[in-house]
Write a structure and sequence with these properties.
This protein is α+β, with helices and mostly antiparallel strands. Helices cover 32% and strands 20% of the residues. The chain is built from eleven helices and 17 strands. The chain has a seven-stranded mixed β-sheet, covered by helices on one side. Helix 4 (148-166) packs across helix 11 (397-414) and helix 9 crosses helix 11 (397-414). The relative contact order is 0.20. The protein binds zinc ion. The site of zinc ion (ZN) has 5 residues, from helix 4.
């Protein structure tokens, strides 16, 4: 009795079957892309989804030139047009090729040892997993991520629209389905054609715990610092070498260590996260993402980072510092506050599925952050997946089914 409803139980086999098929496709995105999508594997999944949408009966399903899949499930004349979104790519931060999902039926609450890479899911370190006793848990084989982020969302939307297409008696608005590429590299909404999508609002299926409904995300900026030194053969370097790699190391060491980092903050606190450091004596680069829920505090963190780098590098007058600040996305909250019915309908849907609504800000962003800013209000709904971007990633079949059922309740809420 771990299912939230008979509807969820009836959807579970289709959700699981689709999920296992989609995670096997290598759709890992790549940073610094040459085009959209950033990797060809995403198109393999996109084509598979177009074929399956046609089979379900969404005859207009099509893949556009930038790797976006759009399709329509028509509702009654005059019904509002509501969007359902999930991203097809998986994170570049863990191995994403050769995913072989494993279903662990009827989880007993103990350690789950995976066959490869010595990977163990230990409920002592994973309180959320500890709470899933009795669920069917899906994991990778231990040496790749699973891809529940966000193929759980893709599978849930597919299973929900298949169910609605097969049950024309169920109430629904006109539903627009959108599957996006390159969310994990922050480009998922960049080339999203909002006009052509034509929805009043949309929902990303891209969260975790049942009941989650997120209308607040970080505001996000990426900062690239490049230090130019003076490189010379070390045998002739006396008084001449200016080592860019050492200077970059000093910049990182001069940043706050016990605050303003991802590992020392939680809740509503922001951070500066140095995620890449590469270089040599001649040139070195530090790449960092900066996050906060408050735009003024975000600006302060960016100023701290660039000021620290400028001071460290200024100590060596022959070195030169280049700074590039790139806007990524903004907290969606202020856009959603203007259109309260969007979140209210999702709350009704989640409660109709017998779940309590959890409203926690996302310490991250979604395609919805950018889409909301561009005029398509898009909060985020749970999917049932956890431990994203790691080889320990897992998902609950029962929770994925609850998410798919919540989509059907959402359709009813907008009918
Ligand atoms: Zn995601």
């Amino acid at each position: 009795m771990t299912y939230t409803s008979a509807l969820a139980e009836s959807l579970a086999p289709d959700v699981l079957e689709r999920f296992q098929r989609y995670v096997r496709v290598d759709t890992q995105s790549a940073r610094d892309p040459d085009g959209s999508p950033s990797t060809p594997g995403q198109l393999d999944l996109a084509r598979m989804l177009v074929t399956e949408l046609h089979a379900i009966g969404l005859g207009d399903a099509a893949l556009d030139d930038n790797g976006y899949v759009f399709a329509t499930l028509p509702g009654p004349a005059g019904a509002p047009v509501i969007g359902l979104l999930a991203h097809m790519d998986v994170s570049p931060d863990a191995p994403g090729a050769g995913v072989e999902p494993i279903v662990h039926p009827g989880y007993d609450g103990g350690r789950i040892e995976l066959p490869r890479g010595g990977t163990v899911l230990d409920p002592r370190d994973m309180p959320v997993l500890a709470g899933k006793r009795g669920h069917d848990i899906v994991t990778s084989s231990g040496d790749t991520l699973l891809g529940a982020d966000d193929k759980a969302g893709v599978a849930e939307i597919m299973a929900a629209v298949a169910h609605l297409a097969a049950h024309p008696e169920l109430a629904r608005p006109t539903l627009r389905v959108g599957f996006t590429p390159d969310e994990e590299i922050g480009e998922g909404a960049t080339l999203f054609d909002i006009e052509r999508f034509g929805a009043r609002c949309a929902y990303t299926m891209d969260g975790s715990q049942p009941g989650e409904l997120q209308d607040e995300t970080f505001s996000a900026v990426e900062v690239s610092l490049t230090v130019h030194g003076v490189d010379i053969h070390p045998g002739w370097a006396t008084g001449k070498l200016v080592n860019a790699a050492r200077l970059a190391g000093r910049v990182v060491a001069a940043l706050p260590q016990d605050r303003l980092t991802p590992e020392t903050t939680s809740g509503r606190e922001g951070f500066i996260h140095v995620y890449e450091l590469e270089g040599n004596a001649g040139r070195a680069a530090v790449r960092a993402i900066v996050r906060d829920f408050d735009d003024d505090l975000l600006d302060q963190h960016v100023a701290l980072l660039t000021r620290t780098a400028a001071e460290v590098v200024a100590a060596e007058p022959r070195a030169r510092l280049e700074v590039a600040v790139k806007e990524q996305y903004r907290n969606m909250r202020r856009h959603l506050d203007k259109d309260p019915e969007v979140v209210a309908a999702a709350e009704r849907a989640i409660r109709a599925e017998g779940l309590e609504v959890r409203r926690e800000p996302i310490r991250g962003g979604t395609d919805g952050s950018v889409l909301s800013e561009r005029g398509l209000p898009t909060p985020n709904i749970f999917t049932g997946g956890h431990e994203y971007h790691s080889v320990r990633e897992w998902a609950s079949v029962q929770d994925m089914a609850a998410a798919a059922a919540s989509i059907i309740r959402l359709a009813e809420a907008w009918a």
